[in-house]
Amino acid sequence: MVFPSPNIPLQVATAGEALMDMIVEGDGRLRPCNGGAVYNMTRALGLQGVGTLYLNPLSSDRFGQGMAAAIHEAGVTLAREIPTHEPTSLAIVGVDADGKASYSFYREGVADRQVTALEMSAECAALPSLKVIATGCLALVADDAHKYLPWLKTQRAAGKLVVVDANLRPAIVPDMAAYQASVMNALGQAHIVKVSDDDLVTLGFANNDPMAAARALLAQTPAQWLALTMGAKGAVLMHRDGQAWHAMETSPVKVADTVGAGDCFLAGMMVALLERPAVQAAANADALKLDAEDMDHILCHAIASASLCVQEVGCVPPNLEKVRARMKLAKAAFKAL
Hints:
The protein has 337 residues and is of the alpha/beta class. It has helices spanning 37-47, 62-73, 117-125, 145-157, 176-187, 197-202, 210-219, 261-275, 277-281, 292-310, 320-330; strands at residues 12-15, 19-24, 30-35, 52-54, 77-78, 89-95, 101-106, 132-136, 161-165, 192-196, 225-229, 235-239, 244-248, 333-336. The strands form two sheets. The protein has a ten-stranded mixed sheet with strand order 5-4-1-8-9-10-11-12-13-14, sandwiched between helices. Strands 3-2-6-7 form a four-stranded mixed sheet. Helix 1 (37-47) crosses helix 8 and helix 3 (117-125) packs parallel to helix 4. The mean pLDDT is 92.
């Protein structure tokens, strides 16, 4: 088993769900895969060489043991090495003919929800090398807002770059209005927001033009940047000043399924972001300035990460070597809008 290197500074802290994806096979059988959007993103960061701290506990059950082994193999540090007795969260995942996934969840009394804002803030405060905070998806449900929202506010106030992935899962909530409000509250603490075109509709920003819907969302947050993913149509990075850049694959991608694609996209985006001199030089997140060259590198790296993921069954995040090889051989087409 590979454990995190003490020589790699911890630059990113992640918080959110870790669950077992039970993928429904064609014959009706369930195939278990390690999953959860934030867990996937965290592993993807580690596999691409970024020093990453995962703040949520894992279970002592068989699923949790496997998830802990996989996250250690990715080089990620667990804030809570001692597992909890609560069980691992479960998700039943159906995949349609186009490889698109749908989810239902079992999340009451589970291990990954055993966190507090105070604990997470203390763990982050103890890391002088920490630059980025990332969360999203099930961490944004209203029932857990008292855990994650104060933590996000504390990290933004401390000058950390806050990244929030809306990544909505409407199947998990009985009260859509409360869920939408909770997601918007979290996005209100972000410097960088990530949404898909489906997320925009679920949040109530319906528009025939996803770009217009994304701009409307960005205008309702203090975020400087928004990343919009649109499946095979590529992705857009836009700044609140109106600038925007688009990139999409020009080489064929054989899709096995889309499980974890957005998670690997966001991880790839953060990996590339941390490589930029402007990020390393910025005294705090509010002072960050990025140019078109930065956008090219960040978007194309993120798309390569996602493209490699969708060619595998379940979420299999690529390592940095594979991402760089894909960018060299089949770099996405990039342009300013």
